[in-house]
Specification:
With about 220 residues, this protein is α/β, with parallel strands linked by helices. It has helices at about 15-30, 35-40, 50-60, 65-85, 95-105, 120-125, 150-155, 170-180, 210-215, and strands spanning about 5, 110, 135, 165-170, 185, 200. Helix 1 crosses helix 4. The chain binds 1,6-di-O-phosphono-beta-D-glucopyranose and magnesium ion (MG).
């Protein structure tokens, strides 16, 4: 039976994507890398190092490890500065209502974000205490689409993967949920997330009833 629901962060509970994009764009401009809003689509749900690798590939440029690490730190500094403007107003509509319904049904709530800034973000959104467990992206070996972060989150909640369901907005995230042996709820269209088991346009549209029936499929 279903015991826990594991949420992705960016694109599911809040929209940090624009701030990630602006930070990558500033880095690309400063280093003469080819990058724009269109190219940014490929970075959705991809971890920090994986994102920089994609940008460098697009430019056809290679950098030595020390420079690569320095560029990651530079991007993150820009992103973290932008997070200072975050408040509970940045939480997507309907999240608190959904969390309250999950709690009332006796379900646990977990967070499985690729972001190493996830704890800071949920604290600023005012929902840090809502989670039974927040998986640490820095502590898992393989990033999404590998199942590691979802498995770590289930384990941290004291649940087995088959007792959990995952909620994601990125294709790599849906793949990670399925690889973990969980049912996957997609936030977005069927075209964008062809592999998801059910689709809702936004988190505010997702109900406890849909979660419970998705689990039974
Ligand atoms: P950080 P999610 C992901 O968050 C973002 O979608 C992705 O754009 C970002 O590169 C990644 O987190 C890593 O973030 O640089 O803060 O560690 O969708 O998995 O919540
Ligand atoms: Mg996401």
């Amino acid at each position: 039976a279903l015991k826990g629901v594991i949420f992705d962060l960016d694109g599911v509970l809040t929209d940090t994507a624009e701030d990630h994009y602006q930070a990558w764009q500033a880095l690309a401009d400063a280093h003469g890398l080819t990058f724009d809003r269109e190219a940014n689509h490929a970075l959705k749900g991809v971890d920090r190092a994986g994102s920089l690798r994609l940008i460098l590939e697009q430019t056809g440029k290679a950098v030595e490890p020390p420079k690569f690490e320095a560029m990651l730190a530079e991007k993150n500094a820009t992103y973290v500065a932008r997070l200072r403007g975050y408040s509970p107003a940045n939480l997507f509509a309907g999240v608190e209502r959904l969390f309250a319904a999950l709690r009332a049904a006796g379900l646990k709530i977990g967070l499985a974000s690729a972001s190493r800034n996830a704890r800071d973000v949920v604290a600023r959104l005012g929902i840090a205490d809502a989670f039974d467990f927040i998986a640490d992206a820095g502590a898992v070996t393989h990033p999404k689409p590998a199942p590691d972060i979802f498995l770590a989150c289930a384990d941290g909640m004291g649940l087995s993967p088959d007792q959990c369901i995952g909620v994601e907005d990125a294709r790599a995230g849906i793949t990670a949920i399925h690889a973990a042996g969980m049912v996957a709820i997609g936030i977005g269209s069927e075209e964008a997330l062809p592999d998801a088991d059910i689709h809702v346009p936004a988190i505010g549209d997702l109900t406890l009833g849909q979660i419970l029936s998705a689990e039974q499929e």
